[in-house]
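Researcher: Structure prediction, please.
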Amino acid sequence: MFANLFSRQVILMLLAALFVILMIFAVLQGPVDIPLTAIYTIVKQSLFSTVESTIPGWQSNIILDVRLPRMLIAALAGASLALCGLVMQGMFRNPLASPSILGVSSGASLGAVIAIYAGFSLISAWAIPLFAFIGAGISLTVVYRVASTRGQTSIATLLLSGVAIGALNISAISMLLALSLSNWDVARMIIYWTMGGLDGRTWDHVLIILPIALSGFMLLLFYSKQLDLLLLGEQHAMSVGVDVAKTRRNLLLISTAMVGAAVSVVGGIGFIGLVVPHILRLLLGPSHRYLLPACLFAGASLLLGADLFVNTFFNQQAIPLGVITAALGAPFFLFLLIKQRLVVS
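Model: Predicted structure follows.
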């Protein structure tokens, strides 16, 4: 027992260290080299305005207005997607459950695309997050309703309905894209959004995702024991006093808010919620007490690492982040399908 506990703590510390290292590299990386000492001085000066500095103003602008918001958004979005995948896999006791597979991510993307197509995004910066929340919520509600009968949820029906709703959302996005081709500016925004990315993100985007991601994580910690019990089955959870219907509803609301916030600022980035929780379950076991912080660090690290990879090797080609995460996640998804011997006809 102590050996297992020790190894879990070691893995958590390694993940936390990796997260910190990638955050530092994310701030250091860019077409312009800025020393770490200068970055430290800039951040210190921004926090304590009384600190005197001889750092040029253009360096301060690059760090404070470009690299720091980009780094924070990547970390928060990656952590949110991984945590939501963990919750869905735990609730439905299936390693294939994730925001992308259940149609939640595509629903949020559809909501964001509607806001862009209708011009609401030009009226308010909160239009895209609001529509993303609505899209994610409607998609998840439909999927859950279709799969649930008399308080019982069919996992197979859940996954299949998620795939169906996801396909429907993608077809709607494609239709809106086709209708917007006459206005290239709108079409370009939709294309860029659906591929996912971090370019042009500002502190306004940080303020959109930060409170939802942090409050969502704290709420999920509160439900960690209930998630452990749900893994043992609905009947077992009810026998020890868990209100399964209420718990699932609350967890779905939290997950929907976190996915909506993440998609609203980074666009369509998939498979993080599928890959990260499954790997961590193999390493740490089923306890959500350890899985929740581990997913936070690992999800954030994965998106930070993907962004660093793109900016290092494809900085001239502007490869979308969603392409990189899909290239990593799709083979892993196929591996899970083969492992579980699912036959799709």
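Model: The chain has one domain: 34-340.
Researcher: Thanks, that helps.
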